[in-house]
Specification:
The protein has about 80 residues and is mostly beta strands. It has one domain. Helix content is about 5%, strand content about 60%. The protein is built from one helix and three strands. The chain has a three-stranded antiparallel sheet with strand order 1-2-3, with no helix packed on it. Strand 1 and strand 2 form a beta hairpin. The longest helix is centred in the C-terminal third of the chain and has 5 residues. It is elongated, with a radius of gyration of 24 Å.
Amino acid sequence: MSISGTVLTKVRSEFEAAGINQTIHRLYLDVTCNVNILTPYDVVEDSISNEIVLIENIIVGVVPSTYYNLEGMEKENLVDIIE
């Protein structure tokens, strides 16, 4: 049996909200291995993929003195909150 194939890599960055003025930044390495397994009777082709977290960092911003959760509010009702 003999194994042959290729390895493809790609660096990927991702940002995700993590609270009030906090953001999680993750850096991934996506690895895809395309392999051909040669046997005396057949050639088997397969692709194996995996993602590896290289670094994870929390970016902290300034926390505001006030915070309003306006989710679900109608546009007409927002004027009442400001006044």
